[in-house]
Structures are given as C-alpha cells and as structure tokens.
Amino acid sequence: MLPKSYYQAKKILCPMGMKYQKIHACPNDCILYRHEFEEMKKCLKCRVSWYKVNDDDECSNDESIKKDPPMKVLWYLLIIPRFKHLFANEDDTKDLTWHTDGRNCDGMLCHPADSSRWKKINCLNPNFG
After folding, report:
1. What burial class does residue 72 get, using C-beta atoms within 10 Å of its C-beta: 0-12 exposed, 13-18 middle, 19+ buried?
2. Closest Cα to residue 67, out of 86, 53, 77?
3. Can you tell me the distance from the alpha carbon of 27 to that of 65, in angstroms, rounded to the nearest whole number?
4. For residue 51, what pLDDT band results from cuts at 50, 70 and 90?
C-alpha cells in the first residue's frame, strides 16, 4: 500500500535509513527536470510549466515562479542503499538468493529461473546473476 501523504512516506523511509532523491517531472510525464533540463521552466515537448502557477500573481517573473511548488515530483530510491538494506539480514539473504543456491534442479519447471529463457540470459551474462 502506498502512503497517502508525504509525511507518512517520510515517516516510513527515514527510520529505515532509506535515502531518496526528489526529482521534478513534467506533469504530462514528458521529461525529468534534471541534468541538462534542470534550469528549464517549461517542458520542451508540451510547453507546460513545471511549477504550480498562482493565478493571483499578475507578474510572472522568474523569482516568483521558482518559489512555487512543482506540479509533479518523483521520489527516486537509490539502488545501492536498497540492496544494502535487503541483504543486511542473513535470513533474508538466503531467501533472496534461493533461486541460485537452494533450488531443486529436477528438470521440472518450478521457478522462472528453470525456464530456457532464464538459462539463455545466464549463459549470455554469467556475471549478472
């Protein structure tokens, strides 16, 4: 279940030590405003402002726009801290690596790792698994 508010999400993630990045996004999901798009004020594709525009303000200078909240924010959970958190407990590590270490190889298809596609991917990329 997803948290209903920013406060509830932060209350769950912070005690667990889960770091995240907030990335502003176009309201129509065209682009993420980061790297070369970080200084833009409107989307290149749909020309929609990425900040909530206050109708009461008659002047639309750059400083007043920067103070407004963004229309859409993506929470990006960093992958390395997530893996560290997943593999911190030895019992959880056994469960996460079961498809490689503890699977019964009797020729029956009991797990997706038993399929021919998975075996082909393992042959093509032996270091990935």
Report:
1. middle
2. 53
3. 16
4. confident
Which single residue is written with the structure tokens 């980061």? 34
pLDDT of residue 27: 85
Task: Dig out the tokens for 48 from the structure.
Answer: 């929609």
DSSP of 21-78? EEEEE-TTSS-B--GGGTT-SB-TTT--BSBPPPTT-----HHHHHHSPBSEEEEEE-
* 88, two tokens: 């911190």
Q: Please give the Cα distance from 113 to 89 (Å, whole number).
A: 23
Do residues 129 and 122 lie in contact, with contact meaning Cβ atoms separated by under 8 Å?
A: yes
Answer whether 73's CB lies under 8 Å from 52's CB: no
pLDDT single digits (tens) 16-27? 667 778 888 888
